């Protein structure tokens, strides 16, 4: 996979991508972005959750002109949820170039959308039905569209949008670039491409079907704002010898490492922005066991020679299934068993199902631990350490002091006090990471992945057309 800086993108785009915390392309982004930047039509075949939005969003925004005030690009999506999500991601990619994408979908007051159109968005992201409503009202004109994207084309056809799509395609200029993305390639998609696209290149990636047999895999469903507390509890319960925590962005990695350290955990962070000397120092500490928790991005952990990792925590579910396999492969090595724990927010279950399809196994759901569970975990750890000292029979120099104490206090009280002193009691300071603050402000307490572009769960019963 390539670094985004290798794609010859403008500083506006590379800065936005960097702010979003991403360093490397996903497989579908690597093969489609250069072709799209060349202005060629293409069909990108890839599963949901592989970064398709950025695959077409980056070249689209790169080619947008700021010298005109008409709609230059349109994205068609099957559902209102996806339209909102795509528009949000495009706005993040285009934030420094000042490119504005407006979502258009059914279920929202159309007059509100008409008012928003007066802000002159360069990109429209809409469901076919509502977009046609605007076309009939002449509140949206597509006669100068330069780039058209059909996102999840197979889903749109499955939902009965073929006639609407054909009507829309007939209204846009013949001289345009068309990008079609689809998880499957049925004959209806091929027919559509043959009629409305100009010698499109078919580009696809094949996810590796792989399992990690010695790694136990579990997931917890929780809200974005609860992740830090739950991670702390799990660290208290499992007390891993060496653990890696994977987070989505470099900024998030830094904040998470700092938050864990403040809570008393031996943790440090590693990502691509650190100097090589700093990276080497952190890795040396981790390998020597001086630090127990390494917080990392996917890129930083790739290629590192790490052994003895007992636990991997996916603080953020990875943006593509292959990253998941790479992450959990850090544990369960050399014949030893390992545990991989993934945090999944309510919006991310489609990504979880996609991962399960790739690894060919179901990931077990476990309940979110309570603060009491964490306390009991630390208490049990203290008892085990105490019994280990007894078994080693190396405490003769403490017997005289013990006898003196027993003359002053009964044995039960004395032992209870010793256990309290030795037990690390769970501490949950009110801490929110910057991404969590953003999510809480915009979406309540649910999380949302970035380049993966969370999709709705497929194969819903009775899908309704968005008009």
Structural features, described:
With 467 residues, the protein is an alpha/beta fold. The chain has helices at 11-20, 27-37, 52-63, 80-93, 110-117, 128-137, 153-158, 162-171, 187-196, 227-238, 250-262, 276-288, 298-301, 321-328, 349-359, 371-392, 399-408, 411-422, 434-443, and strands at 42-45, 73-76, 101-104, 123-126, 147-151, 177-182, 201-204, 215-221, 243-246, 267-270, 293-296, 311-314, 338-344, 364-365. β3, α5 (110-117) and β4 form a beta-alpha-beta unit.
Total strand segments:
14
Output the structural class: alpha/beta
The profile of the biggest β sheet is: 7 strands, parallel
Strand adjacency order, main sheet: 3-4-2-5-6-1-7
Number of helices: 19
Instruction: Bin the helical content.
Output: 40-55%
The proportion of residues in beta strands is 5-15%
Determine the mean pLDDT.
82
**Gyration radius from CA atoms, angstroms:** 26 Å
Label the overall shape: elongated
| N-C termini distance | 39 Å
Model regions low in confidence, pLDDT < 50 over at least 5 residues? 437-467
């Amino acid at each position: 996979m390539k670094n985004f800086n290798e794609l010859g993108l403008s500083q506006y785009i590379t800065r936005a991508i960097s702010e979003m915390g991403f360093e490397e392309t996903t497989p579908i982004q690597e093969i489609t972005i250069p072709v799209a930047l060349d202005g060629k039509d293409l069909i990108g075949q890839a599963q949901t959750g592989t970064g398709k939005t950025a695959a077409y969003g980056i070249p689209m925004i790169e080619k947008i002109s700021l010298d005109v005030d008409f709609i230059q690009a349109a994205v068609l999506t099957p559902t209102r949820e996806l339209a909102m999500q795509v528009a949000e991601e495009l706005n993040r990619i285009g934030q420094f170039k000042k490119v504005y994408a407006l979502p258009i979908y059914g279920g929202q007051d159309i007059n509100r959308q008409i008012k928003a159109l007066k802000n002159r968005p360069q990109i429209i992201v809409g469901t076919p039905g509502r977009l046609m409503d605007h076309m009939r009202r002449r509140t949206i004109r597509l006669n100068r569209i330069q780039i058209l994207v059909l996102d999840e084309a197979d889903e749109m056809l499955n939902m009965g949008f073929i006639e609407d799509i054909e009507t829309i395609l007939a209204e846009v200029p013949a001289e345009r670039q068309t990008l079609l993305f689809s998880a499957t390639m049925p004959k209806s998609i091929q027919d559509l491409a043959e009629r409305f696209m100009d010698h499109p290149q078919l580009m696809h990636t094949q996810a590796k079907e792989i399992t990690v047999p010695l790694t136990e895999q579990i997931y917890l469903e929780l809200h974005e704002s609860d992740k830090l507390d739950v991670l702390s509890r799990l660290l208290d319960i499992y007390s891993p010898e060496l653990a890696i925590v994977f987070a989505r962005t470099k900024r998030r990695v830094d904040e998470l490492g700092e938050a864990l350290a403040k809570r008393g955990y031996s943790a440090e962070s590693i990502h691509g922005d650190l100097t090589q000397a700093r990276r080497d120092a952190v890795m040396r500490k981790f390998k020597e066991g001086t630090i127990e928790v390494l917080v990392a991005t996917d890129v930083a952990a790739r290629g590192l020679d790490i052994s003895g990792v007992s636990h991997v925590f996916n603080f953020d579910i990875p943006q593509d299934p292959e990253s998941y396999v790479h992450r959990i492969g850090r544990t369960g090595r050399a014949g030893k068993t390992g545990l991989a724990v993934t945090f999944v927010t309510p919006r991310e279950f489609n990504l979880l199902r996609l991962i399960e399809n790739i690894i060919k196994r179901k990931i077990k759901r476990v309940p979110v631990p309570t603060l009491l569970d964490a306390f009991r975990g630390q208490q049990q750890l203290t008892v085990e350490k105490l019994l280990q000292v007894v078994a080693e029979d190396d405490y003769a120099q403490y017997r005289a002091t013990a006898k003196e104490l027993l003359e002053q206090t009964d044995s039960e009280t004395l032992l209870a006090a010793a256990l309290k002193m030795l037990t690390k009691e769970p501490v949950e300071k009110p801490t929110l990471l910057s991404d969590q603050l953003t999510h809480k402000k915009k979406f309540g307490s649910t999380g949302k992945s970035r380049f993966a572009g969370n999709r709705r769960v497929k194969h819903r019963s009775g899908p309704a057309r968005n008009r």
